[in-house]
From TrEMBL:
Organism: Riptortus pedestris
Annotated GO biological process: galactose metabolic process
Pfam families in the record: GalKase_gal_bdg, GHMP_kinases_C, GHMP_kinases_N
Family: Belongs to the GHMP kinase family. GalK subfamily.
Xref: InterPro entries: Galactokinase, Galactokinase_CS, GalKase_N, GHMP_kinase_C_dom, GHMP_kinase_C_sf, GHMP_kinase_N_dom, GHMP_knse_ATP-bd_CS, Mevalonate/galactokinase
Highest taxon of source: Eukaryota
Protein name per Swiss-Prot or TrEMBL: Galactokinase
Domain spans labelled Galactokinase N-terminal: 18-64
All copies of domain GHMP kinase N-terminal, residue ranges: 106-191
Amino acid sequence: MAEIIYSKEELLKKGVALYESIFNEKPDIAASAPGRVNLIGEHTDYNDGFVLPMALPLVTMIVGKANSTSDIFIYTDADVGKEPKAAKFNSPTESNLLPGKLNWANYVKGSVNFFDGEVPGFNAVIVSSVPMGGGLSSSASLEVATYTFLETLTGKKTDLKQKAFLCQQAEHKFANVPCGIMDQFIAVLGKIDSALFLDCETKNYELVPLNRTDIVILVINSNVAHFLNSSDEYATRKSQCMEAAKAMGVESLRKATLSLLEAHKNNLNETTFKRARHVITEIQRTESAAQALKKGDYNTFGSLMNESHFSLRDDYDVSCPELDQLVDIALKCEGVFGSRMTGGGFGGCTVTLLKYCNVSSTIERIQEEYSGSATFYIARAYGGAQDELALLKSIL
Ligand code: GAF
């Protein structure tokens, strides 16, 4: 069974060794930011709704040093296909950078561009244990890790919520994904042993304890990769939601109800109606799920997860056969409270809530019955982005 691939220390050691081999000097700055799994509240963030993610012990780490020039040299350890693993660009004078040809480097460039302060030249390498295209928010973890690295490099700290908004801008403008705020928010504000219940309208949030040792959150990667910027499905869903809200005369789907939607059924085409129905019901489910989690009512929480999956599959059309199969198998296993796809969809991961004593048998059954090859993570809720200077010192 594959659990978490790297401890932070192992990942940092890997980054330091890579940095030394490329730049022929020791680094003096490191920062990390986590990936996330969303427990419930999918495709609700850009509709001003609720989300309930937790940060994962899978992180992106950036390791480097100022280089006394105005040039930025970065190198990634990730599998970036045919793209070169090294990139160079100038430090911005006034947020004047533009996206370039290298997809992976654009996330770094975006955070540099939107950083609230002057960025000097630097050298850095990036290593990560967040699977790319796995729906665990590898993009936000890279943006937020970069931003946190720049805070240490410049000594200039940004307010935490503002930092999440600036990293979201980086994704909008440099990766061309009109994402909501969930991923950057949890990457910045995640807390150990807690899920984060966020109201995406007011941006107020509450931490919900997730510290029971007899209950497990199992993240299962279908290993069907999907990149949100490789198709326009995400942007299409977002505009369908805006269209539905407009037709109902409300500012966002957060302000709509099922009865209002029914009343406007004739003004909406069938697809737009279904998209809005998912979002309106998902916002309600997420609010109820957060209440259930606070009370330790895992049966209710699990049923809401299942309903969320069926709604994403049938109304929002963002699941895929592999994710559906993983959910179906999980729901047949003893001790499972609920299971659903997590993240943007079209591939990536499922999240399953179950009893600790049933984890091994559940994993075995999924390995036997799943038509693909899955990767399993027994996840503990983790902390948000941080500088890793103390850890760096301890290993140099
Ligand atoms: C992606 C986006 F980046 C998030 O903002 C969110 O909309 C999610 O898909 C779906 O809930 O991760």
